[in-house]
Specification:
Elements: H1 4-32, H2 36-54, H3 59-82, H4 86-91, H5 93-118, H6 123-134, H7 138-147, H8 154-186, H9 192-220, H10 222-230, H11 234-254, H12 259-271, H13 274-277, H14 280-301, H15 307-348, H16 354-365, H17 373-400
Length: 409
């Protein structure tokens, strides 16, 4: 491995080139209807192959890249929380909860069984895969619904509500799993529920206390701060909001909660303020600057030597990844929206991207005992396949079964 002094200019050049490449990939992939993250994963893998061959990236440069990727995670989950509508979601829980429970339960259980008994993985890796498969990347499907003017339909709004619940529950389950991993790895044959009751309570208490603090901040502090910073002008205001979000996320990490939980809570803190939500367009450049580094880092973490076994594992999991959502969401939705609407919602829940990869990325950071290289690569393959195939199927179904927008007063 070369020294940092020797390769630093090359690394600086690479970072600048990656920023430009990410924008170009986004533009090109948007034209063909495929999420840009697919191209970013491949780009990261190519960088890994080149680094293995020529040692292009020093340890110092790797640390910088990992920092950019962490900020990308915070920004990504901050955006998820910011775009959430907790008050509106609470009013629609009666419809959304059965669909959420069905697809999360079937996807998670199916993923665990295939990983543990089909692939022979240990308990912790199987749990990480199961949780990752419960997530849904609604942005992939919502873009197709929006293109045909169907996102504001009754089924489109139900899809958004269920997907929000999916993502929030996946982040919380991931954080809980990370909290109990040390106990799981040393517990032997002790049942997982006993471990959760024994060690998971501390995580739950910390989450409740942290959530209560965030709620207090949202109710009594947030709007006063927002009024003050808005006087500085929109560009500066959104930078201050993002800075506060990073502080909240870092504070969560210092409490023993994950950075992901903190970032999600930070977004939720500001989601109730329409003045901040309306600044979302100003937030997009920050999002587009940092999140590509997260996806590229995922590609760089894929071991090229594991691609063969990763492909086999991915093919074994892809069936449950698709059916877990189509059947798990479709059956509970059938009595609510009919079989056509249920099929549309089930297929639209299939794409996995940001949240799923955050889950496996956090598992990967714990080491190969928590997530082996072939499991990590398998999930990257599932992300690519579901994000490419699902939009095509959704577009076909929406053309056959057009959705009527809901009229608003």
């Amino acid at each position: 491995m070369s020294t940092g002094i020797e390769v630093q200019p090359l690394f600086d050049l690479m970072v600048g080139g990656l920023i430009v490449a990410a924008i170009l990939l986004k533009t090109w992939f948007d034209r063909i209807g495929v999420p840009a993250l697919v191209g970013l994963l491949v780009l990261g893998l190519l960088i890994r192959v080149a680094d293995d061959q020529w040692s292009l990236i020093s340890a110092e440069s790797t640390a910088i890249f990992e920092f950019l990727a962490r900020i990308g995670v915070v920004v990504l989950l901050f955006k998820v929380g910011l775009e959430c509508n907790p008050q509106g979601l609470i009013g629609k829980l009666r419809q959304a909860v059965p669909v959420w429970l069905g697809n999360v339960g079937l996807s998670g259980l199916g993923g665990y069984l295939v990983a543990a008994y089909g692939l022979g993985l240990a308990q912790v890796p199987s749990l990480f895969i199961a949780i990752a498969l419960t997530a849904t990347t609604v942005a992939v499907s919502a873009a197709v619904w929006d293109d045909v003017g169907a996102l504001n339909s009754a089924n489109g709004m139900l899809l958004l509500d269920v997907a929000e619940l999916d993502d929030i529950s996946a982040i919380f389950m991931m954080a809980l799993l990370i909290a109990v991993v040390p106990s799981l790895e040393t517990a032997g044959a002790q049942p997982i529920m006993a471990i959760l009751l024994d060690t998971g309570w501390a995580f739950v208490v910390k989450t409740v206390v942290f959530g209560a603090g965030c709620l207090g901040f949202a109710l009594f502090v947030e709007r006063r701060i927002t009024r003050m910073i808005r006087k500085a002008g929109p560009p500066d205001a959104i930078l201050v909001v993002v800075g506060i979000g990073i502080v909240i996320a870092a504070f969560a990490a210092t409490l023993g909660l994950s950075l992901a939980i903190g970032a999600l809570f930070a977004g939720l803190v500001f989601s109730r303020d329409p003045r901040v939500v309306h600044m979302n367009t100003l937030f997009r450049p920050i999002h587009d600057l940092f999140t590509p580094f997260f996806f590229i880092s995922i590609g760089m973490a894929i071991d090229p030597a594991s691609l063969g076994s990763a492909s086999a594992a991915g093919l074994a999991l892809i069936g449950v990844a698709i059916l877990g959502k189509v059947i798990g969401a479709g059956l509970p939705a059938w009595p609510l929206v009919g079989w056509r609407g249920a099929t549309l919602i089930g297929v639209s829940m299939v794409p996995r991207a940001e949240i799923a990869m955050i889950v496996v990325h956090q598992g990967h950071r714990l080491g190969p005992q928590a997530l082996p290289p072939e499991a990590y690569g398998a999930m990257a393959l599932i992300v690519a396949v579901t994000c490419i195939l699902a939009p095509m199927a959704i577009r076909f179904l929406l053309r056959r079964w057009p959705q009527r927008p809901v009229r608003t007063a």
